[in-house]
Design a protein that fits this description.
Blueprint lengths: L4 E6 L5 E13 L5 E11 L6 E5 H6 L10 H13 L6 H7 L13 E3 L2 E5 L8 E5 L13 H21 L5 E8 L11 E7 L4 H15 L11 H12 L3 E4 L3 E5 L6 E8 L11 H22 L3 E7 L14 E7 L12 H5 L9 H9 L5
Helix pairs in contact: 4-7
The chain binds zinc ion.
Length: about 375
């Protein structure tokens, strides 16, 4: 049995696509207990060095599920119908059941643009944590969103970020996040995004910003100095043409080389702006158009029905375009099941910050009671 072998593909600048490749040998019951070999790849994200594991054989098996499962439509219909009877995000209940902004923000009670409404989250996990409904309709399926809804939702988010930032410029790290359907940890069926603005970046945002700056400052050789990781990444993926999906003047999409979730796509916004509040209406419209098209492609191409997404923004009022670009990750989640909500959402998976449902002190108290001391 040999140790794993390293495979490195060189990209632009300092980019390296690194894999450790190992072979596992088993006598498989699926093939009359003959010796069967399986290839396992341990891949490393070129910037963050976070590892992931890929077994090509396992990946092949998933191929059977490229369309939403046969029970998906039936389960969806049941869940949508049951949840529509009393939905806090539908217009008839929204006004009486969702929080309003405090006066100090100098906003309306709730921000409303077109069909979308922005209001504070009821149970926050950030000092500034708001919800944006994606339309007045109780449910829209992943491939059916309109670009106008997403454009207005992002414009509403920007308005909120600006209001908080104006009140306190130390609150400058925004992110826009999406849990879609209960398998993604969304407890409310009515589609919505969650937007947060903190005085510190999330763990993963911080890592992205710090490592992107390190990459820019690398002084190993003249040709690797002063380069932008994100522009190098998209050029590398385009040239290698294995994970590259599509691009236009605004954005590039690839499948992530070393993913942190399933069916993971990376979207890189090419325009030299790292502060989302500086985006023009047209640029917000372009982002909305891209998202809607990619959700549709994931649904039809990979049978993806539930997703988490996070958009990793730079700080407000700072120009980091020398070394950073806004980027986002979309990952798929398991298929829909009745009476089940997953407990792991965008914060745990895409920001690497677990949210605890109970405090450790409370857990200790409850467990202690049942143990002899
Ligand atoms: Zn609703």
């Amino acid at each position: 049995m040999e140790a794993s072998k390293k495979e490195i593909v060189k990209g632009k600048g300092k980019i390296l696509f690194e894999k450790d490749i190992a072979i596992a040998t088993i006598r498989s019951p699926l093939e009359g207990f003959k010796l069967v070999q399986q290839k396992i790849e341990r891949r490393y994200d070129p910037l963050l060095k976070i590892p992931s594991r890929i077994n090509a054989l396992r990946a092949e098996r998933v191929k059977q599920a490229t369309l939403p499962g046969e029970n998906f439509e039936a389960n969806l219909q049941k869940i949508v119908e049951a949840s529509s009877k009393k939905c806090f995000f539908c217009s008839n209940f929204l006004k009486q059941s969702t929080p309003k902004f405090p006066e100090e923000l100098a906003l309306e009670e709730r921000i409303s643009i077109g069909e979308i409404i922005v209001f504070p989250n009821l149970f926050v996990f950030s000092q500034n944590h708001a919800v944006v409904t994606l339309g007045s309709k109780h449910f829209t399926n992943l491939p059916d969103f309109s670009p106008a809804i997403w454009r207005d939702a992002i414009l509403g988010s920007i308005k909120y970020f600006k209001a908080v930032y104006k009140l306190n410029p130390e609150l400058k790290f925004p992110s826009i996040n999406f849990n879609f359907l209960p398998p993604s940890a969304s407890s409310i069926i009515h589609p919505h995004i969650q937007i947060i603005l903190d005085d510190k970046p999330t763990y993963l945002t911080d890592l992205l910003l710090t490592k992107s700056l390190d990459y820019y400052n690398a002084t190993t050789t003249p040709e690797t100095k002063g380069r932008n990781y994100w522009l190098d990444l998209l050029e590398s993926e385009k040239e290698l043409d294995q994970r590259f999906i599509t691009e236009n003047d605004f954005m590039t999409w690839t499948a992530t080389f070393s993913p942190i979730g399933k069916d993971e796509l990376t979207g890189i916004i090419k325009i030299p702006k790292t502060d989302i509040t500086k985006f023009s209406d047209e640029e917000v419209g372009a982002l909305a158009e891209e998202l809607v098209q990619v959700f549709r492609a994931l649904y039809h191409g990979r049978g993806v029905t539930a997703v988490n997404m996070a958009l990793y923004c730079g700080p407000i009022n700072e120009s980091l375009e020398k070394f950073y670009r806004l980027n986002l990750r979309i990952i798929s989640r398991p298929t829909l099941m009745p009476n089940y909500t997953n407990d792991t959402g965008f914060m745990e998976l895409l920001h690497r910050e677990p949210i605890a449902a109970a405090s450790p002190e409370m857990i200790a108290r409850d467990v202690r009671k049942h143990l002899k001391s």
